[in-house]
Amino acid sequence: MQVSHLDRVSEIEKMCFSHPWSRQSLESELANDTSVFFVATENDEVIGYIGASIVLDEGYIFNVAVDENYRCRGVGSALVDTLVTLCKKNNLSFLTLEVRQSNIGARSLYSKFGFIKVGERKDYYSQPKENAILMTKYF
Ligand SMILES: CC(C)(COP(=O)(O)OP(=O)(O)OC[C@H]1O[C@@H](n2cnc3c(N)ncnc32)[C@H](O)[C@@H]1OP(=O)(O)O)[C@@H](O)C(=O)NCCC(=O)NCCS
């Protein structure tokens, strides 16, 4: 992901989440040495992105989001696959994340890549209030 992608990525954030990351937060995270971002594009337009933090041998997915007009076409899978491949290459021990309990689509996507439920955080999310499911993929 490059700075030139940030306008579209922040649009996708707004489309997908009740607490979207601002363009400014995305930009400062992109400049962080421990952050890794990938975008998916079609005809040079960003249609999805994934962001993660990698510190030593531990990875944490901040977010994965696909423009609602491009879902269920394998874009989310391609983004997760790209990140998982990078983590394997870098000998990570695990990759972890939180996901809303009701987010069946995202939970299925992560399960497909070998993430398993390792815990739950009560009322972790607001608007609407909801538990987070912690999912981890061990390498
Ligand atoms: C979750 C999300 C990234 C999936 O992106 P996508 O491009 O539609 O995903 P894919 O087409 O690669 O689908 C991958 C798998 O996810 C699951 N999946 C995706 N959408 C689904 C849905 N609506 N219901 C059930 N399963 C779904 C399926 O297991 C699918 O695998 P399959 O195609 O082999 O059946 C997308 O729905 C999205 O951006 N959602 C809003 C943002 C979000 O909730 N992000 C996760 C935050 S933790």
Characterise this structure.
- With 139 residues, the chain is an alpha+beta fold.
- It has a single domain, classed as Aminopeptidase, CATH 3.40.630.30.
- It contains four helices and six strands, in the order ααβββαβαββ.
- It has a six-stranded mixed β-sheet with strand order 1-2-3-4-6-5, sandwiched between helices.
- 24% of the residues are buried.
- Coenzyme A binds next to strand 3, helix 3 and helix 4.
Describe the structure concisely:
With 139 residues, the protein is an alpha+beta fold. Helix content is 31%, strand content 39%.
In order across it, which strands form the biggest sheet?
A: 1-2-3-4-6-5
Estimated share of beta-strand residues: 35-45%
CATH architecture: 3-Layer(aba) Sandwich
Number of domain modules? 1
Number of helices: 4
Low-confidence stretches: none
Nearest-angstrom radius of gyration?
14 Å
Mean model confidence by pLDDT? 96
- CATH first level: which class? Alpha Beta
Percent helix, as a range, is 25-40%
CATH superfamily: Gcn5-related N-acetyltransferase (GNAT)
Counted beta strands: 6
Q: Tell me about the biggest sheet?
A: 6 strands, mixed
The general outline is globular
Bound molecules: coenzyme A
